[in-house]
Amino acid sequence: MASSLVMLLAGCGQGASSSITSQQSNKQGPVQIEFWYGNSGVIGDTIKDLTEQFNQSQDEVKVNAVFQESTNNIGKKLLTAIVGNAVPDVVQLNARFWPSFAYNKALLPLDPYIQKDPEFNYGDFVDSFVDNTLIEGKTYTLPFNRSTPILYYNKDIVKEIGLDSEHPVSTWDEMMTAAKKATVIKDGKTERFGYASLLPPLYYYSLMWSNGGDILSPDQKDVVIDQALAIQGLEMYRKMIYDDKTMMQPLGGNRDGDQEMINFQNGKVAFLLASTGDLNQIQNNVKFKLGVDFVPKFKEYAVPSTSGGNLAIVAKAPKEKQDAAWKFIKFLTDKQQTIYFAQHTGYMPIRKSAVKAPEMVKFYKENPFFKITVDQLPYGKGIPVVPNFEKIETEIQNALGKTYAENVPAQESMKEAADKIRELLKE
User: Fold this and answer.
1) What is the pLDDT of residues 108-136, one digit of tens each?
2) Alpha carbon distance 2, 93 (integer Å)
3) Is this structure's pTM higher than 0.90?
């Protein structure tokens, strides 16, 4: 994506027309801006609700929210929009992939707005989320729908296999043992899997980091994802899928139709690694007693804190619309909207004041599942903020896919990925 973006931006001036005409002014009515978002289901409905709340709260800006299937799809469509001079004004971008746009000047630095707006409390954002908005000290995005993976489990099955229903497993060794006990195989076919994980690499990063492995070296100049500490978790998964037959092969799907999640909700999977952002959906669809806990560990707990999406203003949008977009993203990331979004979706509050707010404290007391991800946040870790990371993650995804789908040993699949990532780092 990054190399394509360079070519698209070459020779393209700033301030091109928005996809909604920029002829109107405040004298003729509110400034209209287009907002691309990428979540469906409960999350998408909540984003639409917040957009409408903003529109009703003032008469200077009118936001038209346009669903784009996924945050990844927004990135792809934004490339086309930039070269076609028909850009949206504000976008929700994948929290791991936005740097490619920022490095290539497709996103507007937000620091002038932050510095000149006394009402905007930048220091109130959760620190680990702020780290994922910066490049060389400049702020290009604001955190929005941020999450970590968490472990969901079926309390009825956990009770059936004789484990503590409130805290059945802590380590991956315990998870493997529990998965064997929970798996049901009849006539050579697995009718109930002990364990499943969603497909994207971010769910694998927890295993890698927990064991002391990483994607890149600390100076981000070398690739270490094929080293022993980094691949142990993947090799464990391979054995669970093909030898023990206790883990469902990750299949993927659209955001609300992942087969792993569907099987878990239908009682065909005992333990599921999925996003805290899925909590509301899962709670609303299961017929059994649900449990939620930390992601298991090897040596120490570890979870990615760069899961979800960030908000950005498009650099090629007209200045009038950029100013309007700032008012909108300021609203979306304010304390009260953060509380509303967290309570309705399961995503984490992005502001410290929201976490400590009386209504949130009460909510967590009444809904303890939602607090798991906040308690787990001190173990959060970010992915490298480097150009081409979407390409790097594609190679990681390919390696995972080969092991999951083709029974390729982890050392072999990750070695191939590491070699390709080394070439990407040279670009």
Assistant:
1) 999 999 999 999 999 999 888 888 888 88
2) 14
3) no
